[in-house]
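Help! Submission page says 'invalid entity' but I think these are all valid:
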Amino acid sequence: MNAKKMDHLATGIIYFLVGVVILLLVAILSYILFNGVPDISWKFLTSAAQSFSAGGGIRDQLFNSLYLLLLTIIVSLPIGLGAGIYLAEYSTDNWFTDLIRTSVEVLSSLPSVVVGLFGYLVFVIKLNLGFSILSGAIALTFFNLPLLTRNIEESLRSVPNLQREAGMSLGLSHWKTTTKIVLPAALPGILTGLILSAGRIFGEAAALIYTAGQSAPTVDYTNWNIFSATSFLNPMRPAETLAVHIWKVNTESVTPDAKLISSASSAVLIIVILIFNLGARYLGNKLYKKITATK
Amino acid sequence: MKQYNLNDSYITEIPGKRALSTKDLQVYYGDNHAIFDANLIFPRFQITSLIGASGSGKSTFLRCLNRMNDKIAKVDGQILYRNVDINSDKINVYEVRQHIGMVFQRPNPFAKSIKENITFALKNAGITKKDALEERLESSLKSAALWDEVKDNLSKSALALSGGQQQRLCIARSIAMRPDILLLDEPASALDPISTSKIEDTLNDLKKDYTIIIVTHNLQQASRISDYTAFFHLGHVIEYNTTAHVFTNPKMQATEDYVSGNFG
Amino acid sequence: MKKKTIISLVLGFAALMLILTGCGNGSSSKESSTTSKSSSSELSGKITAVGSTALQPLVEKAASNFQKKNSKVNITVQGGGSGTGLSQVQDKSVTIGNSDIFAEEKQGIDSKKLTDHKVAVVGMAPVVNKDANVKNLTMDQVKQIFTGKITNWKEVGGKDEKITVVNRAKGSGTRATFEAAVLKGAEAVKSQEQDSNGTVQKIVESTPGAVSYLAFSYMNDKIQPISIDNVKPTDANVETDKWKIWSYEHMYTNGTAKGATAKFLEYMNSADVQKTLVKDMGYISIQNMKVQKDSKGTVSSK
Amino acid sequence: MDNIQKKLQTKSKATFQDYFGKGICYLCIGMIILLVTCILYFIASKGIATFTKDKVNVFDFLTKTNWNPGATDSHGRPDVGALPMIVTSFSVTLLAAVLATPFALGVAIFMSEFSSKGGSKILQPVIELLVGIPSVVYGFIGLSVVVPFIRGIFGGTGFGILSGTLVLFVMILPTITSLSVDSLRAVPMYYREASLALGATRWQTIYKVILRAAIPGLLTAIIFGMARAFGEALAVQMVIGNAALMPTSLVSPASTLTSKLTTDIGNTVMGTLPNNALWSLALILLLMSLFLNLLVKFIGKRGRF
């Protein structure tokens, strides 16, 4: 077979593979959306969940998911940035760097239920954080870090070396060059990583069941005192997230409309991730343009 | 390729004030010995060209002069600047680079506005007064012959400029730091002839205030703009003399072959 | 941008440090958390109840009602499984351990240390996929099905269809109860295992020939509950022990319950909870039981 | 000594900035190492207890096929043989990776080499969207779509390795795809230009130049995917059947390490043999992924030269 024919054949195969995947994606997404969207109402989004009776909403779970996302990013992004910068800018090829890379990969391969139980015994019990958003956020950091670190490293590496040399040749410190020149240029890539990991946070259940807990006590959305037990901002309160809620209504709940709640919640979850995804991209582009002054 | 005796070299005495000199400079990339015993003296307020075939080590040598090779290569020997050996471990390399600036082969403006490209490093070096920054901005862009082209949209992204403008911006960025010495690594190789001649004009103007060391592939360029020329071959400095001598009356066979185009 | 990065870096670390140091202090001062002043009229304290997922919704709802009346009591209710509940209450990590199973039945638990509070009764029944066309079995047939002796529905008068046994997770309260009442020491056939009522319900509903067992509250019209020896699985039959497969829901405390915890457990057994929430949850009120069962399975009239 | 000479030989603000930066990086690295050490120590100490405290023979544990931690076998030893779970875990992970890799690579090549910006602009967010679908939702789709589908075609109950593989395939597809896209895009543009300029067709360029240059990145993408498959519990648990039996076919109920762990852990009491044995499963899980990591790293290193 000659090269031209091979080229056509390979192109055909790739289009076929892409077609199958697209079909699959569309099927899954429409399955979830068609099953769920008709049941989403304003009331569903804004009322509290019910244990035994129909008509419960997901207000608290939705908020908890978002808040947990925020806290997890606050905990894991700095560490991920530091580690990513180290690997991309400071590390040399030696056993220590290898050790770090292996560590990061080990973190990524931990089963979530193991992290959940570890988090339960260490954060919830030993460190006495209790079932809390904070325990959940720390546990999720375990999953978040590998993806984040790897992504930040790759994004930094993909910034041309010329930029680094430009900064260094002006007498800027390596750190300044990295943070003020290389990092902004790597921002779009870093953002992708953040979005990917955010998806994981939204969807994680097994690790949270044992750490953030599976109950959502009623909180007061007007109480801004972060230390008050009823405040919605208190990171020390237990918080059932949307994914955990879906798990719960499907496994042990006796709510009569469990099916409705779980399909509608799944759809909400997807829509929220979509909004987050697009929003983060939009903001990222805007930020990038602002930093780089491109119009 | 013809074999030349690499240990044979002709290095002329340099009269007048020296800006920078190297003594027995060796560079190794891992096990690979890239520069052998380079002993060169660069005169003040003159333009010196480094010429030689690809892989002759001229760029490597240039990058050693402001310690840009620190991370990638092992550099032995001395580099003397103001009687200080700036190749020592104890030297503050950031300070070195503020006095010995560098412009690279490909234009590499920061992804920031034109103004920020110039002022960014200045602010970081402690110049924060607005007037001072404005003054440096204008004077450096004027020196690089870019002021008239960009003065109306200084907040535009530097990436929107043409290649030649970008390279002149990079020169302006370097001289805004008011260095003593300016190192240029084939600054015009990626540019069209018009941009190239603008850059050459700029360098000629800069000569009165700066010591310039330039690596170039372009022999005409070397002969047009430089006062001294050093010829590199396989990591050895073969000949170092005034440009006129190197091009019209080379002392070494290798140099003669190279400048006459009979090389390799 | 940069400044923000630095600030967030610093803040992040500060927060982590704070947490870590805070925890150190916290763990030294923590006690099993019933810190109520019995003399004062208003209750206060922190109660953590962990364990059985089946019991969780009931306790959660009761806790929220209880807190409305006693605003200074803070109750956290979580799942995790009966085993987790029992071991954590034994370690005094939590105040109350929720369990579907007697502490005596659980390997590794020192039941003498724990005080049992039975809060509800749960009845369980075998369920089959509707396709099998079976409604009534003898106790012996059920036993033979779950020990793998009978493998086709036609052997017990149903359709010619292979039996797919779906068991519950080893060590779960539901399985322990079922095996005690039905298998009586015989070893169950190795088969699928699931650990939650909801999943079992869905699997039995959708898999032809499937058989499993569920708590009464998970019965619906898409699966077929089985009568045993012509006794229907109803609350009334459980109350008189005519229906044999039932167990208690327990809330264990380490030692005698005190203060707010005692009051809360008292509330769990009050008419308030037993008449409404327990019913809503599909459990049988402890007050309606005409008989009682001990940890060895011996039934006596009350 | 003049002012400049002095400055050259003293530390400046920039020097301290670098100390600061390095310090922060090392702190972060330290944090990661601390986390990893903590969790490794924790799982190892719990997992080893089965062998040290409960005197289970490691070899028996790895090779026996009977899992019944509550009971003892005919010799009076605890009956814990993890082989069925190990085999099943390996099977679903490898099968899912084998199945997902061509699709993921195809999509990645499409996104980085073929498509105009529009195509990947739509595909990318959609693929990222899939990462965020909770595994429990995948589990239920698996239970209500995949299991009946398999039952319809192959008979049996539909539960088993095949259903698990299909569910995992969808779950790890986005992970492998998006990481592969990253590593293909990281191949410098001039590789492509050079190859095309030499007269190579697009496919030759992709196959001989780009894929080859991206091998380490692609392998990492596959490891990350496999790691996710290895560690996935909730979704697999719903479709694999959870029977601690040696799998006899792709459609007979089986049990992975994670599904066993998730199903049973809440019902066991901390410190007892059944609980320790489950932690030993977690330890195996960890060691297996560690081993796989090292293996692929080794391959990746050889591939580069």
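Support: the input was valid. A stray whitespace character was the problem, and the output above is from the cleaned input. Residues 1-6, 9-40 of chain C have pLDDT under 50 and may be disordered.
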